[in-house]
Each structure stands twice: as structure tokens, then as C-alpha cells.
Amino acid sequence: MIGMIAVGLAGLIWGGELFLHHATVIARKLGVSESVIAITLVAGGTSLPELASSVVSVLKGKADMALGNVLGSNVANILLILGVSATIRPLTMGGITTLDISMVVLSSLLLFLAAFTFRRRVVDRWEGAIFLAIYAVYIWYLIR
Hints:
Elements: H1 2-29, H2 34-59, H3 63-88, H4 98-116, H5 125-143
């Protein structure tokens, strides 16, 4: 059992790193800007292990574990990773725009609304579809 967990975890980490490395190389060769690479590929590549484990959790009927995984990871990334990084060396906004920050705030507010103001503290399929649509429009805007 422990061996399966270790192999699964290693596969998630290796797969995420492999995807991230090659997707970044391809994007740079296509002339994609560093800010778009950071917001799309790096964010996606580092989230692939979470996505994979969340999908498995949902398929096994543990949706609360999947949501906790995503929320916990985001809280840790924003507060712990960003905090430690900024403590070591002050961070600049670089290519991050007001639109990018607005999307973070908007998505947080929408998640709060979806989870706590609609029915039963549940993020339903249609709400998930709205999140996906907003993300698709945002990515389309960045790439165009």
C-alpha cells in the first residue's frame, strides 16, 4: 500500500514536471510572452498533480477531499510560498497586470458565492461550467 502511494506520488510529480518543462520550451519557441507562460503553463503544470488527485478523489466519492485539496493548495501557495519568497527577496509584479489580479479576486469571490450562497454549500456542475467558461475566456484574452 505504501509502495503504491509512493509510486503514484512520484508519477504525479514527474508527470507535472515533464509537462511543464516541455510545454514551456514549446511556448518560448512559438514566441509566447513570459507572463502568459507563467499564468497558463506554469500554473497549469504545477496544478496537474492536484487535478489528477482531485479527479481520483471525486471518482471515489470523496468530493470534499478534492475541494479541500484545491483550496488548501491555493491557500498554501498564496500565503506560504508567496510569503516565504517575498521574505527572501522582495517580489515585483513584472508582467502581471491589473486584469490578472482582478481575475484572482473575481474567482475567489465567485467561489465564495457558489459555495455559500446558493444551495447546500455545494459547487454544482453548472457553477463548475461557469468557472471553466470564465477561465477559457481569460486564457483566450491572454493568448490573442
